[in-house]
Fold this protein.
Amino acid sequence: MSQTAEIKVDGKTFELPIIEGSEGEKAIDISKLRAQTGLITLDPGFKNTGSTQSAITFLDGEKGILRHRGYSIEDLAEKSSFLEVAYLTIYGNKPSAEEIKSFQDEITKHTLVHEDIKKVLDGFPSNSHPMGVLSSLVTSLTAFYPESLDPNRSKDAVNLSIIRIIAKMPTFAAWAYKNKMGHPANYPDNSLNYGSNFLKMMFALPTEKYDVDPVVAKALDKLLILHADHEQNCSASTVRIVGSSQASLYASISAGINALWGPLHGGANQAVIEMLEAIKADGGDTSKYIEKAKDKNDPFRLMGFGHRVYKNFDPRARIIKKAADEVLEKLGVNDPILDIAKGLEEVALKDEYFVARNLYPNVDFYSGIIYRALGIPTEMFTVMFALGRLPGWIAQWKEMRENNEPIGRPRQIYTGSNHRDY
Ligand code: CMC
């Protein structure tokens, strides 16, 4: 028999169904609550609210489990390529050799962007933050592919929009960087694979020959895999909610990029490095910053620590920490910031404040150290996160559309003035 929950209001009892997911997680279905009781629920930050039923990513924050379409993040990081993970996330199954080849070929065909988009890029001053440039360039696609505005078009038309954004995102990301540097933008090189093409567009100069370092390309691929999706976080929920109004894929993804930008979400990777640099400049005393993070009168937080859902460890952080050691060693980079990060982690993991609140390093704590070693500047870190998260956003948008989900529209409890005469 299916389980129910009871809620008692003014002496009257209402029964609410309990639904169960494929991994045994349970939820009280309150979709008829207001109709039955006249009440709504209040849950700022949606800490207890499921917004959807989703078959993309399973996450158990207590056990530190992360799986995409059933495959563990550890296996994917070790055995897959980023485009395989993208295919898996978006279409639901591990691609066959034929499927991945055709997916890669399609993507490679669409890497070039309309030359007029360069004019949009040229309008940005070179001190623009690359995240703002990236989200604007993605929105500009709506003008160059007006047929993408209608998300109800055929499956093939929607799929073409998906291929286009995956193909063009590295071009946009590299151009956002070139704009920052005041260097001419590079065009895609379709003889290279996804990551190597991105690295070449980022780092090649007209005056020098550029060869992609395989160590760098491999590290980049792993980082992208580790960011591919993370179920209903701030940016994924944004993409779904914007898309629920039947806004286009590009408009929804652009909104997701902006949601990711903040330092409490994807922007934390930039904030971590800025914090570590500040600690270094201040003499490297980590305990001083631990005390600041614990002081409720000080707004300082240990960036890269804590997570809304992981309350044991972030499995991505474990993989990244190991990768950071390997990459720095292979590239012969000696970054003093890594020692500060390790010192900070060691102290925090033993500190009562962090232990009691289950605060552990998250994915952003070590990712910035690898990005630095790869030569990627701090302001580009969140762009790298966006590049990795793109398949997840697409998958969330596509699933929301295929489930025919209603427009997202929360309610509120009004606390303002009562009616007054004007
Ligand atoms: N430093 C110091 N104290 C912290 C931190 C931190 N980084 N994170 C949480 N706390 C404390 C917080 O003050 C609160 O204490 P108390 O119970 O005494 O009031 C308690 O821990 C619970 O924190 P919360 O803010 O209620 O938790 P949340 O689930 O709303 O916030 C978070 C999650 C990730 C926003 C938060 O941990 C944080 O601000 N971390 C730093 C930013 C960061 O690294 N963000 C990246 C997240 S991972 C990448 C991604 O997927 O976005």
Notes: The longest strand covers residues 12-20.
